[in-house]
Amino acid sequence: MLLLLLLGIGSAPPGLWEVQDLLQEEPLLLLLLLLPLTAAHSLGEIGGASVSPPGRDCLGCAKTGSGKTAAFVLPVLQKLSQDPYGIFCLVLTPTRELAYQIAEQFRVIGKPLGLRDCIVVGGMDMVAQSLELSRQPHVVVATPGRLADHIRSSNTFSLSRIQFLIMDEADRLLEQGCTDFTKDLEVILGALPAKRQTLLFSATLTSTLQELQSVTMNKPFFWESKTRTVDELDQRYILTPEKIKDAYLVHLIQTFTDQHSDWSIIIFTKTCKDCQILTMMLRKFNFPTISLHSMMKQASVLRTVETQKAFPKVRFANLSKFKASVYKILIATDVASRGLDIPTVQVVINHNTPGLPKIYIHRVGRTARAGRNGVSITMVTQYDIHLVHAIEEETQSKLKEYEVEEKDVLKILTQVNVTRRECEIRLEATDFDEKKEVHKRKQLILEGKDPEMEAKRKEELEKIKKQKKKFKERIQESVQQQQAEQRERNHLKKKRRLEQKKAKLESK
Ligand SMILES: Nc1ncnc2c1ncn2[C@@H]1O[C@H](COP(=O)(O)OP(=O)(O)OP(=O)(O)O)[C@@H](O)[C@H]1O
Ligand SMILES: [Mg+2]
Fold it and tell me: Fewer Cβ neighbours under 10 Å: the N or C end of the chain?
């Protein structure tokens, strides 16, 4: 009861009494339950379910910024402290940046236990990672591609004794999006013991629930928050023609930076190219801007794992500079939309309306975290209105219009558009598109695919699609023709019948 009073909860949510019993034996969970975050008690339930004997699989679907990381870090450390060995726990996550962030949380909370962790992500020295893995760290935090590569190519470590498999942003890991993790996950799951606990987390789990349940085994405990976005988030939109978008953006940033010196802003763009051009453009306007996208320089001059951890490469370096508020504006693609926890972010601007509501939920979730306030502003063109409706339906909230003085925007319109064009020309001179092609080829090779074969396959698919479309059109045409002929026949029949009737009547 004391616990309930401390949490300020009137009536206990289902399962909490069981958790209280459990707390007698599991004091670390008390820490989680007593933390003042709104979702903490629910996440405490997840923690409770996962450490209570015999330990259930869990699916945790809670809002962005509600502390899901602690909900798996604490139970793992709780169990690890009873029987420490390596490799005890594997955490999978879709992006490299997120892997570093999660490992950091394990490191901070697990320091008194002498926790040893290992980060296994792409773009880093594989030999150094291999060495670290062979030293049997307690926790491995990995992105699927690189870990699968290690499993395929090395026998110096084993995942056969792990007790916990955690998938953070599990729906992203299991969906077949632009980066498809299916093959790598098959390799990884094949290396894990059948007897393990699987904990899956995301702010948007429900759409992929069936796939998720196939990964879990022992009657998963499912916790889902009722709403998708947090109350502290002020969700706004600006309806704007495509051509005026950038002028609105510059005006918004100017207003925010004039009014607040301690605010950070994340701007999400649709493509790497947009991200690059906007970064160049905002820099021309002297805004402290930095970018994050998958086309950024991957080469690292730092070889050892220790130095890589401290300053791994451009992408990480840029993120660190933004986190440290050296730069106040981060322009990013969706590579930064999930999981990143940067408390200073007060504003999220969607330069394009996200095509899927769940992308919107994760993007705007980069602000208003852990009970703080935040604003999200989505740029909407006349062609995106249906997307906003879909977002409103999924989030069960209404986006309000963000009031802007249009005349102030129009004043800077020409200057902004000219600057953008200059940046586009400068970027074209750097062969950005060609580099993108090279990058794509490299990705395919890394995925074990032949770029030429893939190009042919794509071409053939396009051909088949075109043929199908033509075929469909022809069928439609002939159906329409048949229908028209039928209508004509019916009309003639009717006409003939009427004439016969008329003739009969006249003869009478
Ligand atoms: N119980 C708590 N009380 C207060 N702050 C907390 C609590 N638990 C976690 N936090 C803090 O809340 C912030 C958000 O936590 P976290 O990154 O785990 O959120 P999340 O639920 O994983 O969000 P997302 O869906 O975006 O990944 C972190 O800065 C974390 O330190
Ligand atoms: Mg998270």
Answer: C
Within 8 A by CB and 6+ apart from 392, the residues are: 398, 399
Cα separation, 251 vs 264, whole angstroms: 16
CA of 122 relative to ligand 2 center, distance in Å? 20
Q: Which atom of ligand 1 is the closest one to the Cα of 39? A: 1
Q: What does the pLDDT look like over 77-119, one tens digit per residue? A: 989 998 899 899 999 999 999 999 999 999 999 998 899 999 9
* Domain annotation for the chain: domains and CATH numbers: 2-224 (3.40.50.300), 233-430 (3.40.50.300)
Residues 6+ apart with CB under 8 A from 56: 49, 50, 197, 218, 219, 220, 221
Residue of the nearest CA to atom 4 in ligand 1? 37
108 lines ligand 1 (CB under 6 A): no
Neighbours of ion ligand 2 (CB under 5 A): 68, 339
CA-nearest residue for atom 14, ligand 1, is 65
φ, ψ for residue 410 (rounded to 5)? Answer: -65, -30
Separation between Cα atoms, residue 90 and residue 72, nearest integer Å: 11
Instruction: Tell me the CA–centroid distance for residue 302 and ligand 1, in Å.
Output: 31
Q: Choose the weakest-confidence range: 14-23, 88-97, 240-249, 332-341.
A: 14-23
